[in-house]
Amino acid sequence: MKFHAALLALLLVTNAWPQAIPDYYTRSNFLSAPPATFEHGLLGFTNPANLAFLPKPELRFFWGTDGDDAVSLENWGAFSGIPHLGFSVQRQKFGGVGVTDFKLSAALGSPAFALGLGYGWSNGKQDALGREKLFTVGTILRPSRFLSLGLAGNFSVESSNREGVAEIGFRPFGTPRLMLFADAALRKGVDVSDAPYSLGGALKIVPGVHLLARYFDSDTFTLGLTVNFGRSGTGAQTHFDENSNHAFNSYHFRLGGAEPSFLPVLLSKEKRYVPLVLKGTVDHLRYQYLDAGTLRLMDILKDIRAAVEDPRVSALAVNLSGLRIRAEHAWEIREELKRARAAGKQVLIFIDRVQMTGYHLASVADRVALDPQGSIMLQGYALNRTYFKGTLEKLGLGFQELRFFKYKSFAEALSRESMSEAEREQRQAYVDDWYELTRADVCAGRSLTPAHFDSLVDSQTYITAPQALKAGLVDTLARWSDIGGVVQNLTGRPKSGIAPGRLFANALPAEQWGERPKIAVVYALGVCALDEGIKARWLEGVLLALARSQSVKAIVLRVDSPGGDGMASDLVAEALKKCSDSKPVIISQGQVAASGGYWISMYGDEIVAGPNTVTGSIGVIAGWVYDKGFGRKLGMTSDLVKRGEHADLGKGVRIPFIPWQVPARNLTEEEIEKAELAIRFHYDDFVKKVAQGRNMPEARVRDLAEGRIYSGIAAKALGLVDEIGGLTTAIEIAKRKSGMKTGTDFDIIEIPNTKGFINLRKQFSPVAASVSSDPTVQFIKFMLDMNGTPAPVLTPGTYPELD
Fold this sequence. Notes:
By secondary structure, this protein is α/β, with parallel strands linked by helices.
């Protein structure tokens, strides 16, 4: 804003444009309103700052008549732009002398403020008309949804000539329904009070149709009409002289990005369906390039919401062929499709080979289509775990389990050959909740009895396509290539498909002026560690910056983490606590948010979990791996000198090519006692903080703790979470708690929004990439890195993996 004011002052005190050349309004007579107020002006030709607001590439062609001669093309203009960059050509004829003006412009900025620069030159009879090469500076300031202010200054590079234009637009309702505007050109030798000006207004009759009127101080005026058809549009403007006589007309057409229009709705209402092809692995984030096999969960949820809001769409056709997804993420998509059905949209889901998770998702549909050669595998659910005690013995490695809480079973993978009773108890309770959720949803969706579902799981399991049709699990046998006919049978009439990217919510630009309120969705994904996984050091800085941001009204922290380093967890938790002092913080728990994952959740104003989220596990554990013949088997020995009773702790043989040192000895009794004190200290700290964050008595938290995992369903009943829902539920709660009114438009910013530029390891060493991402390898790496360190963490296998 300071720069905006300084530029205006500069324009008021400097020499202005010579009077001999055509004035600003003559040179820009194709404009129906000041460029800072309506339809991006002339794409940077008059005020280059407009290009910062241009959402898609666009081309506009204008031409003016000679009196009533509609075919005269002596005055025309071609204006083109892409976001932030534009090039324009305008041809004008004055007194039989023609000149062609060129303009190259660029801009940057935000929805609230933009700055643009342009360079213009001419050819033809420019000398006779006083044309000079121009350098243009333009700004547009939109401090609220009601107001838009523009300034443009033209500076000759051949002389001291200068000219400035100030403009203002006002929306009384804060929407495009009605807009009032005014502008003035500032020139030397003319008092500000006598400067040429215009004023007028624009009225939105229906979406995409605007009526405009503009009056000039010379007693001339224009009347205009613009009509948008979506990705194209047209318009006309009639110009009247000072005696109110018709002088000439100008016309234009545009091609480019989608704009609001009543025509697509009028012509295509409920005549389209949206094909959603969910082939690939569903994840929260993907790499920017060469990651076509990854589907972002947020994008899928947004596309379903966009289809619901689009009046052209009556059905969604979802292809689950080749889908790999976690159970909780599938449930979130299922819930979004359920909302679509409740809103009156019909849902068709195509499957070819699915298991429990895929069929659970498919069962929400109005109609399920199965490939004639497809199958359904209803085998039930299981949580499997691999034990390495025998492996360690064969390698000559010893392991000391430092476990002091009943259900905290992380170290069992190295200390046992099978589940402890406590481990079996908590896992069985989770699997039961998971199974019963699926059974209830499938039975409700497919009108089955629980006994029938149990029979399919226990007695039939593998179900061929004809068997599935007979059992009522699917409605028809068909291929995805025939999906148009299946949609027609479902809806009773032919439908044409529309890509998700062309849905109104995805394709139309924001019409609101200025910055819209924002909700930040911040991802805490992977192991809780300082510089990998959730990247706690980086994440702390992000959260503290969001706490200070005026435009971010609420924070949603999406947690999908099994825990890890308690220090990393606490770093993030304390940052969230500071955030909650200034704005709402809502936690959205994904597939797993337990142990350290629950630690970073506990200070949220509300915790939202899926029904089969693995959560809780309030506990701390440690383990000690040491050399019990390992070195001798490899022909390796170690020796040392020391000063300090415990200086040799952790010292031993180093494994070549692996950055790990195998401790030469087990812990002493004294060291075990000290380790127990440390573990109990961290546990007590964890419990106290949960009690504070959840506003629960500490004794109650201790009853629920001991490292026990819970499903989201069980956790809600016990008060460890507040709501059953997914990411969209958390965003809706954040919006409500931030004070936004119903119907308020807002933006979602995702942090981070990608995994990075490209996955080089996957591209150049796919085997290494696959090995490094294996849960068992990650578990072993964690044990090597955190050997002997108290940790709130779950072992892979405690929670459902990709199905």
